[in-house]
Every structure is written in structure tokens, then in C-alpha cells.
Amino acid sequence: MSRMVEVSIDLDNLRHNYRLAKHMAGNAEVWVVGKSDAYGHGLQHVAHALCDADGFALLDMDDALALRQGGFDQTILLMAGPSHERELAEASVKRISIVIRNREQLDMLRHARLKQPVSVWVKVRSNINRFGFDPAAVPGIVDALRDQAGVRLQGLLMHFAQADDLAVELDTQWHAFRNLAAELGLRFSAANSAAMLRDTKTHGQAIRLGTALYGNNPFVGAAAHDNLAGFRPVMKMTARLTDIVPLSAGAPLGYGATFRADKAMRVGIVACGYGDGYPNKATTGTPVLIRGQRTRILGDVAMNVMFIDLTTVSDAQTGDWVILFGDDKLRIDEVAHYAGQRPESIQCAIGGKHRTRILERGTWPCHP
Ligand SMILES: *Cc1c(COP(=O)(O)O)cnc(C)c1O
Q1: Residues near ligand 1 with C-beta < 6 Å?
Q2: Prediction pTM value
Q3: Are 41 and 350 a contacting pair, CB within 8 Å?
Q4: Is pLDDT of 320 > 60?
Q5: In this predicted structure, what is the pLDDT of residue 365?
Q6: CB within 8 A of 124, min separation 6: which ones?
Q7: Less CB within 10 Å around the terminal CB: N or C of the chain?
Q8: Ligand 1 center to residue 290 CA distance, Å?
Q9: 266 burial level (CB within 10 Å; 0-12, 13-18, 19+)
Q10: Res 368 pLDDT > 50
Q11: H or E segment at 238?
Q12: Beta 287-290 vs 293-298: how paired, if at all?
């Protein structure tokens, strides 16, 4: 047996998800959020498949420059803004839009001698309370930017802290921001995946679409939302079944003996663990698929090994591929729920660890 773990990225499903979001967005633009190497999916692959997207929202200047140099001509937004003067100068030359979210960046912009104008989004602090200007300070900042040569003011930007919790009302989380944008006569970008799905009023000028684009349920506890129907899984993880061993009644299994058989069982050993990026908190009960049948993990996940219950999967054989997630019958959301983490945190942990198989059935009108 050669390969033990396989991670594949389905670019057709990714494109399908983007089109679905575009359909929901109406007149709003949909920007592909590509931070952390596109949530572990590989920014270059994602950008290639979504070459005709309205825009890309990134954190690293290097990623932004790589896309520009690769021939991507659409909006590219640096979500954290420039971290020093050279980045600001590069942004203006390469037509990379920037977020301004603190006084240091504002001063940098004020004193810059830019060869070409730079497009600016002003970040307003929300109840996430990390970045952005206090709403009370924003009108003064906006006035100054409107008068400043070399600045093309695009609008106001905010990020939701709790759009992903359906138990928390959405409207109160952003009504002050919305009023501010209306008072100042500015366009805005507010929505992430969860807000996009919940309320079209959040769509504004541009939606910054991350987790749902990658086929994940953005809602806390994987709560159901009608608008999620139709989004397809993009990353799929499978691993080989290497051994089948009997376990007698009462016998412990694995490190820490966190599982004990209550009857005689057949146990499968799968060559994948937390060292491969699979969440180590996904313990007994987490579902897996083998031979089209659903079964469960037993005990704790080790570094490169996990155990599954084959007691009722009589036709399983060593060498079989076991689907860990990324199938219509087993979405990553379920695994994430068992592990008590977000699906994208699993994808980020897996990203870059494996040689990925890129599935690309369709063709699309890509320029680069
Ligand atoms: C990551 C991020 C997003 C995307 O959020 P999702 O919930 O993954 O859709 C949008 N805006 C900002 C500022 C972000 O950092």
C-alpha cells in the first residue's frame, strides 16, 4: 500500500458554491475570502477555479501580489490593511484596495506620497471589538479622507461577531453601522457567510464569502438554515484501512483505554490521525463511511492512527478507503460538531500537510 491519506479538492463544487452565493447576492459583489491559504484549500487552486470572481479578500500582501502577477484583474482587498509604507505604495501601484483600521494606518496614509490613488475601506469597530474605529470617530475620518488627494474612498466595512449564532438577533449587531453608512452616504461591506445567508440587507456593496464557499455550515452547533441547501463539500479526506483486529468483550482499546468493548467486536485500524490534521477531539461516536456504510470512531484518535467499528461492516477489507468527511453523506460539519470546533479550523489544520488531488471536471473561462 502506498498512499495512506488522500485529500482532494473539488473545484467544480467550489465553483457551484460561488455561483449559488452570486445568485443569493443579487446586485452585491461576492468577494472570495482567501486567508490562510484559502482555508487550507490552496489559494492558487481556488483562485484558478474562481478566476471570474468579483474579487478576492486576503490578509497577506504576498498573496495579493501573486494574484495580480498571475493576471487576476478584479478587486483585491487587503483586509488587514498595509502594515508599513512600502506595502501602501505597492497597493497603490498594483491597484490593491486596502482597509484602514487603526490610527497608525491612517497616519501612514496621510503622510504617504502615492504615485497612484489607492482605494480605501474604513473599518468600523463592531461587537467583535478587535479592529476598526469607534463609530463616533468615523465621520471625522471619512471627511478627512474625502478631501485627501490620492485616496479613493470606497465605503465602510465591518465584521460580525455573532452572525453565526441563530439564537442572537442579527439586526442589533449592525444597526449602528448601517445608520452610519446611510448618514455618510457611503457604500458598505458587512456580510460574511452567516450574515449573507441570514439577511439580504447585510449584502451591501460586497459580501466577503469564506466558510460557506468551502461548503461549510457557518452556524454554531451546525444549526440548520434553509439557505444552506445546495452548497456542496469541497475538501474531502479519505484514509486507508490497514488492519482488522478482533476485540473481546471488556477489552480496552488504544492509548488511555478511553474505549472498552462491551461485547466482542471487530475493529478497523485507519492510517490517519491528528498528525495528518484530523481533529484529535473527534472521539468515540464520530461518524466515518466505509463501503457506503456509516460507522463510528472508537476511542481516541492517535497521531497517525484511528480505530473504527467494523462489527456490522462485514465486507470491509484491508486496503479499503475510509471516507472521513467531504461526502454528501458525511459532511465536515458533522465531524466538526463531534470535535467541538469549526469546520474551517479542521480544514486549516489539514491544509498543506498532504499532496492534494485536484478534481476539475468542467472547464471554465479562465484568463491566467
Ligand atoms: C474571515 C473573514 C471573513 C469570512 O468569514 P466567513 O464566516 O468564513 O464567511 C469575512 N470578513 C473578514 C474580515 C474575515 O476576516
Answers
A1: 33, 35, 79, 159, 192-194, 208-211, 218
A2: 0.96
A3: no
A4: yes
A5: 67
A6: 132, 133, 135, 138, 156, 157, 158, 177, 180
A7: N
A8: 34
A9: middle
A10: no
A11: strand 235-247
A12: antiparallel
